[in-house]
Amino acid sequence: MVIPKVMKAVVKTAPGPGMLYKEVPVPSIGPSDVLIKVRAVSICGTDLHIFRWDEWAANRLHPPLTIGHEFCGHIVAKGSEVHHVNIGDYVSAESHVVCGNCLYCRTGRGHLCPNTKIIGVDRDGAWAEYIALPAINTWPNPPDTPPEIASLKENFGNAVHTAFAIDLSAKKVLVTGCGPVGVMAIAVAKAVGARTIIATDISDYRLALAKKMGADVIINAKQNDTVNRIMAATAGDGVDAWLEMSGAPSAIRQGFTVLEPGGEMAMLGLTSRPIELDVDNSIIFKGATIHGIVGRLLWQTWYQMSGLISSGAVNLMPLVTHRFPLSRFDEALETMASGHSGKIVMFPEAYWDESNS
Length: 357
Prior knowledge:
This protein is 30% helix and 27% strand. By secondary structure, it is α/β, with parallel strands linked by helices. It has 2 domains: 6-155 and 297-355, Medium-chain alcohol dehydrogenases, catalytic domain (Quinone Oxidoreductase, Chain A, domain 1), CATH 3.90.180; 166-292, NAD(P)-binding Rossmann-like Domain (Rossmann fold), CATH 3.40.50. Strands 3, 5, 6, 9, 10, 17 and 18 form a 7-stranded mixed beta sheet that branches. Strand 12, helix 6 and strand 13 (217-220) form a beta-alpha-beta unit. Helix 4 (147-164) crosses helix 5 (180-191). The radius of gyration is 20 Å and the shape is globular.
């Protein structure tokens, strides 16, 4: 195919709120890179932080920058040193570009690489018609994978990494925070045989999605006595596994209250500030085990999530609640900010008609 010299992309042009949908050069590739024609992208909370230009974004980003890190597409060009993928391959991608040379990369812990560059945050991203990426970061998709699902794989990997940090089979599992990753973690817990799944959030909309994806008990933490309801749902014992996806101080304190002695907690949710916690009674005297979760295990998590999807053990399609053309990114972000959505998928103009046909 003939690759154009310019493309449309969503760009953070300067510090401050907002973004622009504008024409930029198609990125060039190096000898170990591929050029991917983007078929679909999905929205992450990080993208909303960048759009709003909050304190985290202001301290991290250096505009101008094309944003977006969850996507799928087809390889249309590759560098001279790329031999394991081919032009035409339909791929998703790992958004963390690691150095491959540090202590962590060389000891099988690349997800902890201190030199990580995240696409759409530290380097140009995927809310565009084309993206350049190291070939090693691509992940092949079966040709019949719906683009909505293929674009979710990176984000789904966060849920899989969190859920697989603990043996959830036959366990009473608490999931605090029912945003898209929390809801995906519920689906994973159900797939691996959790005994009971209890989900908490302050949004009835998100709790309804949690129920649809496999939660047995849903609790609106804003309207109910959360601790007592969890204890009642577990015959007074509490939970022996807890997936913390909210970052909310109240949810974290409640979770430690209902965690059984000897229980395990995997924590993905980010707090916006330091929080107070009774470490003695919440962790030490309980003999609790805490797993901090960052990114995805490279590449173990990708094999795990692909197996869950291809086997049919997890169906992510009910989580996709809205679709937009990429040019209406601002409307898509507003929809996400409303709290009345699951995952939102956007399509470059070349694929928009196809996606709605």
